Amino acid sequence: xxxxxxxxxxxxxxxxxxxxxxxxxxxxxxxxxxxxxxxxxxxxxxxxxxxxxxxxxxxxxxxxxxxxxxxxxxxxxxxxxxxxxxxxxxxxxxxxxxxxxxxxxxxxxxxxxxxxxxxxxxxxxxxxxxxxxxxxxxxxxxxxxxxxxxxxxxxxxxxx
Length: 160
Prior knowledge:
By secondary structure, the protein is an alpha/beta fold. The chain is built from 5 helices and 5 strands, in the order βαβαβαβαβα.
């Protein structure tokens, strides 16, 4: 069974989002070993400079490092400049990745994004949409899409 890590900066604050995460985590248990890794978000002033943002992203990248370099791991950076995939194509991509990796990491950065070094090392850069979503909601949307992808692979009626 493939291991899927959601490596995310920050915690879910709203109860309804935590409930949604729990529901999709439970559903995904039939398809993969899911881990949600919440990393501390760097503290920044209200109006941070570019230098302060870069330092924060670098600190967050260092916290991610131990997960990104694991053997037999593929990394997917969730970022605005990434390509978009349909649910069916994401399903096929996860099937392909599972042939060469035992773990797939989905990386969600802070509201300022992901350090460029992490993006450069990613096996795939993926964008959910050209629209902007709150990072907490994006996590739930990603969990739903991963569940949908596995459901498609197994021929479940969920995708219909």
